[in-house]
Amino acid sequence: MTTYNLALIGFGGVNRALAELIRDEPRRFADLGFELRVVAITDLAFGSLVQGEGIDLAAVLAMPRGSSFEGLPGGSTEARNEDVIKNSPADIVVEATFTSPIDGEPAVSHVRWALESGKHVVTTNKGPVALKGQELSTIAASNGVRFEYEGAVMSGTPVIRLAHKVLGGLELRAVQGILNGTSNYVLGRMEAGLGLEQAIAEAQELGYAEADPTADIGGSDVRLKVAILANELLGAGIHPNDVETTGIQDITSQDVADALARGCRWKLIGEARRDADGTVTAVVQPVALPAGHPLAGISGATNAVSFTTDLLGAVTVSGPGAGRVETAYALISDIIAVDEFAKGAVRA
Ligand SMILES: NC(=O)C1=CN([C@@H]2O[C@H](COP(=O)(O)OP(=O)(O)OC[C@H]3O[C@@H](n4cnc5c(N)ncnc54)[C@H](O)[C@@H]3O)[C@@H](O)[C@H]2O)C=CC1
Ligand SMILES: N[C@@H](CC=O)C(=O)O
After folding, report:
1. What b/e sequence results for 58-78 when a residue is b if at least 16 CB atoms lie within 10 Å of its CB, and e otherwise?
2. pTM of the predicted structure, to 2 decimals
């Protein structure tokens, strides 16, 4: 049985959910042909912890936020990310710190340090993928390791890998969908009569929202996801700033009620489309969809994306777009991809 040593960078909702799965369900991984051992954790709130023989996850998960790893063997008060990423005995670095829609930092540096140290990276962080994806994938390839990021779009619902593997041989012409769980949840709660702020607070409590929820409501989270899909699937080579973006911040309770009265539902739609001249146009905007539209019935934190293809027409995938456990699953699917690569490399 292969054992992969993990370094968890960021110990918030998603990485804690992954740690809980490793603690509670080792059989799930054994059935996949490997076991997972967490040898390092860093977080701004806790500091750093490196224990090469494996960290007692039950003990660290029981530590309240605000306590420190200092005092534990291999522990320190500060999140010594660079040292831990470069020098801990991890095979796979799991990056789940805050997403920065501006420059992707510090996650871009975390990913780069790991790949240049010959460590695989799995991440749910959209910043490095949307802003430096091509560069980081090139670094990964030249170091013989994987850079995997399925959770960057639609949480654990397979989108990127599915489109690459299962829609191969089709010409993709456009991608369009609901790509932010928080804003979709909030719009649904506003339909039920809640105010915007109250609905956002619920989404935060449920673990859907970004650390700064204006990224969800203002559209910058979807902008990153549209840029990722446009670059990955349409070969667009665009920057997130190329995606014209309007969020739902100006949609009022009255707008929501008026739409419902007309049989419509407001949705935040992200889209990238290849035009006749070959260029790709990408846009994020709220749209009041008629009830019969396939995306109108997508509710709560569920997301959906529709691929427009030449031979099949529209192919739509729907599933969770946010959530701690759901997103931790994306990391597991990435680790499976790393394992396939590692075993394939061994066989070769
Ligand atoms: N929660 C969700 O549904 C989804 C989250 N994501 C992405 O996954 C990432 C993690 O999400 P969550 O766990 O929900 O966020 P979170 O806010 O619960 O956790 C992030 C953790 O990272 C830590 N952190 C921030 N900067 C750090 C630094 N420089 N060094 C060390 N630790 C640092 C914070 O203290 C916090 O504990 C984010 O980038 C988010 O955009 C992606 C898909 C879905
Ligand atoms: N905050 C995001 C989490 C996933 O990317 C969302 O609500 O969709």
Report:
1. eebeeeeeeebbeebebbbee
2. 0.96
